[in-house]
Design brief:
- The structure is a single chain.
- The protein has 306 residues and is of the alpha+beta class.
- It is built from eight helices and 17 strands.
- A hairpin with a 3-residue loop joins strand 14 and strand 15.
- Helix 2 packs across helix 3.
């Protein structure tokens, strides 16, 4: 990965290669951490903007509450810290990663009085699944791993420990020759991908999984509003794997993946086997908004100069 100069660590900027933690930090052993993924875009007005920064920081605070992680920052202070680190690194566009974790102290499952630490890093990062995927789409497989049940893990928290489920699914998919995996919930309905929410287009209607077993995606929420504003009918409704197979179009969305079409699922071609017209129209509008070209969504952008 491409590094930058500074990482924000517990309120101070420090050089990237000096941002160290102890190997016996609690989170390294037990996954007791929460994080966010946030994107900054270079805008057409010559400035840069962080996309839905306030919403990401609010979700991070909520994740901490859900998993009982006592972070010493509120959403507003996290926003200010994110702005501080992108400015310090002169990052005009790229990815921002806030992370709060239980640090070094007592060992054992119970975190006790171990310190809670917070870092924010940022770096240049292009299309998560490759630039060609934004147009040509990706191949996905239905994972053999079931998405976590809502009472097995706290699925509304973006917590590090939850992602072992995603890691196993992603490894399996890559080793089987696919780009990504989609997981089913405990009842057999389509849940989400390893780090993205799932949408399908079928018979003129856009469907996405309701907020059951899935993370409450901020890009997902953006896509729902954009699609409705463009005049599409969109519903939050459970759907099955074979309905995904029968879709006219399908796509994934997330901060890293942005809006990536699906061309194939389990060796079944979706639609024409590349990005469809509905996906393209929403994708085009999404990138226009992220670059500050649609003032109707101005509240989604936090501008800064580098």
């Amino acid at each position: 990965m491409q590094t930058t100069e500074f990482i924000w660590f517990d309120g101070k900027l420090m050089p990237w290669d000096q941002a160290h933690v102890h190997v016996l930090s609690h989170s390294l052993h037990y996954g007791s951490a929460i994080f966010e993924g946030i994107r900054a875009y270079a805008c057409t007005n010559g400035e840069s903007a962080i996309f839905r920064l306030a919403d990401h920081c609010k979700r991070m605070v909520n994740s901490a509450k859900i998993v009982r992680l006592a972070i010493p920052y509120n959403a507003k202070s996290l926003e200010e810290a994110c702005l501080e680190v992108v400015r310090a690194n002169k990052l005009s566009q790229g990815y921002i990663r806030p992370l709060s974790f239980v640090g070094y102290g007592e060992m054992g499952v119970y975190p006790g009085n171990n310190p809670v630490q917070t870092i924010i890093a940022c770096w240049p990062w292009g299309a998560y699944l490759g630039p060609e995927a934004l147009e040509q789409g990706i191949s996905i497989k239905t994972s053999t791993f079931t998405r976590s049940h809502v009472n097995a893990n706290m699925t509304k928290a973006k917590s590090a420990g939850n992602y072992i489920n995603s890691i196993l699914a992603k490894i399996e998919a890559k080793e089987d020759g696919y780009d990504e995996a989609v997981m089913l919930d405990a009842s057999g309905y389509v849940s989400e991908a390893t780090g993205e929410n799932v949408f399908i287009v079928r018979k003129g209607v856009i469907k996405t999984t309701p907020l059951t077993s899935i993370l409450e995606g901020i890009t997902r929420d953006s896509i729902i509003r954009i699609a409705r504003d463009l005049g599409y009918e969109i519903v939050e409704q459970l759907f099955t794997r074979d309905e995904l197979y029968s879709a006219d179009e399908a796509f994934l969305c997330g901060t890293a993946a942005e809006l990536t079409p699906i061309r194939e699922v389990d060796h079944r071609i979706i639609g024409e086997g590349h990005r469809g017209p509905v996906t393209k129209s929403i994708q085009d509008e999404f990138f226009k908004i992220a670059k500050g070209e649609d003032p109707k969504y101005a509240e989604w952008l936090t501008y800064y100069k580098v």
